[in-house]
Amino acid sequence: MDDLLADFVAETREMLEASEGEIVAWEADPADSARLDTIFRFVHTVKGNCGFFDFPRLAGLSHAAEDALADCRAGRRKPDAALVTAVLAIVDRISAMVDAIEAGEEFPEGGDDTLIAALGNDQDASDLAFDEPDGTSGHGAASGLVSTDAAASEGDAPKRVDPNPSVQRSIRLPVDLLDRVMSGVSDMVLARNDLGHRLRQAGNQPTIDGPFERLTTILSDVRDAITRMRMQRIETLFSALPRLVRDLSAELGKQVMVDLEGGDVELDREMVEMVRDPLTHIIRNAIDHGIETPSARLKDGKREIGLLSIAARQSGNTISIVVSDDGRGLDEKRIADKAVETGLITASQRAEMSREKILQLIFEPGFSTADTVSNVSGRGVGLDVVRDNLEKVGGSIKVSSQPGIGTLFTLQIPLTLSIIAGLTVEVGDQRFAIPQSYIEEIIHSSAKALDFTRVGETALVTFRGDRVPCLMLSEVLALDQGDIGEGDHTMVMLRLASGDLFALAVERIHSHGDLVVKPLAPAVMRSEIYAGSSLLDNGEPILLLDVTNIASRYGLVSDARTRVREIGDDIVETAKNTVSRAMLFTDFDNRRCAIRLELVKRIETAPASALDLTGTKPRAVIDGAILPVVGLPEGQVPAEKVRLLRLSDGECELLHAVRDIDDAVELSGKLKPERDDPLIEAVTLINGATVSLLDGHELFTRHGEPPEMLAKPLCHIPDDEWSRTILAPLVVSAGYEIADGSDDQNIGEGAVRIVFAEDNDTVPAGEDGPVIRLRSELDAGAGDDSIYRYDREALVRALGDARPARGATQ
Amino acid sequence: MNDLMVMTQIAGRRCALPAHDVKSVIELSTITPVPQTPDFIAGITAMRSQALTVIDCRLALGFAEGDWETDDRAAVVAIDGHFYALLIDAIEDITTTTSEPGQVSGGFGPEWSRVAKGMIETAAGPALLINFPALIAGPGDNQAGLHAAA
């Protein structure tokens, strides 16, 4: 009996959740008979089940609602706002009663009759039609539609009350059981890895390898499925929102239409719960503060009904949920005033802050611009709690807004709590994992740009022009330093959620991949260095570092006030980074020049001999391609080797010769357009000196051409068995193509020709290409420049010598 | 009465672990050390896909390291949802108790009193019944625990 009751409660809940959204949708479009059917089915099922158990009150309520809805279905009655509210009230009461049944409590008496009366079942249907408070012409048309629609559906109504609605079949499972299955599968994967290792040691065994491969495939399928078991569609979260929006807007006298998108995005069950409160809070805020009253909206020339759209999207390992409204937008001035008033920022700080930065202030603790504390929002639990809760699970929140146009909140949350992308690093022969989300960049410390210094005991590195504190992981963990020099560290740049940046020096980077994070024992957690443990593919446990805690132990997390400023700076900085970075160099006229970094494909170093200055345009051969060269000095190249910037616009390429390559820099200064020299786009200041920024467009217009791949040089060989089978492979391996006899003279021109010294007459007249003579005798006669045909070294050398000669003449 | 006990040697003394609480006995192979944690936490190791915290019981009691041999076997226990591998000298036998835990006048010595629920008589002779949470709390927390209790 208890089981049956539990099933009843569970089933009712599930249907409740599903139908709430339907009811609101139905209210928006009363002609939609499909919605009506869903709700009807719900109350109908509840009624039926109640009869089965002994719940007379539930039965009474659901019966009344069923009657009213049946009238609508039959077209005897037109659904209106009052009816929807009444049905919703009954649905609410049913849900409350179900809760009481589950808890085994008695539900307080009374109240049912009023609810039933609100349905107005006893009223005459025609009365209701006239009682319609403000039936606009649109409504009238709709009502006509309803009746025809309902009449049409009346005939097949009995068929539609289908006891097996076409919903996805599902069963309920305790999460414990799921976890057990998950860890079972993880064990299987480890056992498989072990087995695979042993099989490899044992050597190739086709009879075993086949089934083993199959096992591997099946196992990875099962693993995927199990992982998905923990996932839930975000729909479950969304389905409650239309109701929330409806109730709130009714309460506040506003009209809001809600638009949901991306309900099929899947999220870890636990994460869905974590997001529920923040999302609700933001929606409350949007309706209370964002969307104006209908009259105010009309005055501003907007539609009477406000639009609230909530969209979920998955990108890689994060889900972003965007909540946007078309309300009045955030008032920058009021936010700033309030922040100054509450001492969050000073007046001078305010003057320097961009709009973007000021808007983010709404997430600071103790901030609320609501003039009056309403029932809905502004109850002291502010957006700071929302942000803190999101950050706790590794998420973030941002706001942007246009005055009078609307506000947009972007929530970023990781896909799951238990699987994270991590980087495996090594220090002191031990491996540790760092969550990928913190990692900004990985730099090898020997790079000149890092400029590793120690100020007192504190280590500093220079990262994009800023001095950034640096922690040695070996020191953090109190491991033996070993004999690794300070220059041999690899720096992992970590960006905290607060926007602070620091470098963590490790000995080596191993790999990155998804880690299944498991909690650690309290005694280990007390060290406040580790966030959890995970197992590597080989079954070896690995510790996950708690980056935030480590940073705060060393005082690297700034307090709230400076934090605001740094977040703002950060936004500006990243914006700059995406705009322009350039490669700084000195050309042969000793001018300091720069070229946009996007154009630079590679930096090449070529010997001066690779340059061909004979033609009208200088050219060079790089990697078998002939490319035009610009920027060369007049006359002879002054060095043995030339540094060349290989520029590419994706299709065409060219080489820019430079005297010295300086560094990659940010184009932070103002760009002053240069008109006199078409090859120069602008002049700017970098580190206090003027730099000419080359005009990529002009450069490619003048000199760019698709790289011309060098055809392999041809080689004629004598037409006999020995040459074809023994000589030819050697010639090919020396980088030649064998010319067949049918080649016409043009292609054959300049080709290397191998002939036997013995039969001189085979050299055609007019052939000017190099000729290699082979002789059959080991000993050469006097003045003979021929090569003994089995003298491999000499032959390869001769073939090699023949090549550049050809390259130069072309 | 008549409970099953895993009889072990810890720091040269015979101790009893309730068999019901011991999930399994494993051979410790590789232990990954956990830097910046108390000495008695030997590290973490993996039992199938489960990460275990390895507790060196001798050190957790407050004895010095290396005074006793170990056969590298450990008893796996679950405390508050976390799994621990208790590194002990040796595992001897499984036997039944023949008495309720009792106290001895004068106690068992400061180290032992902290982690013992009392003395029990077993078929294999008297043994100290171990209180797991007190054991894994380690010697450092002993003082704090006593103060808190007082």
TrEMBL record, chain A:
Reactions accelerated catalytically: ATP + protein L-histidine = ADP + protein N-phospho-L-histidine
Residues annotated as domain CheW-like: 419-556
Domain HPt: 1-101
Alphabetized SUPFAM superfamilies for the sequence: ATPase domain of HSP90 chaperone/DNA topoisomerase II/histidine kinase, CheW-like, Histidine-containing phosphotransfer domain, HPT domain
UniProt keyword Transmembrane helix, yes or no: no
UniProt domain Histidine kinase: residue ranges: 166-417
Gene3D superfamilies for this protein: Histidine kinase-like ATPase, C-terminal domain, HPT domain, SH3 Domains
UniProt keyword terms in alphabetical order: Kinase, Phosphoprotein, Transferase, Two-component regulatory system
EC number(s) stated in the UniProt entry for this protein: 2.7.13.3
Listed name of the protein: histidine kinase
Organism: Erythrobacter rubeus
TrEMBL record, chain B:
Superkingdom to which the source organism belongs: Bacteria
InterPro entries hit by this protein: CheW, CheW-like_dom_sf, CheW-lke_dom
Signal peptide: none
Domain CheW-like: residue ranges: 2-141
Protein name, per record: Chemotaxis protein CheW
Protein's organism: Erythrobacter rubeus
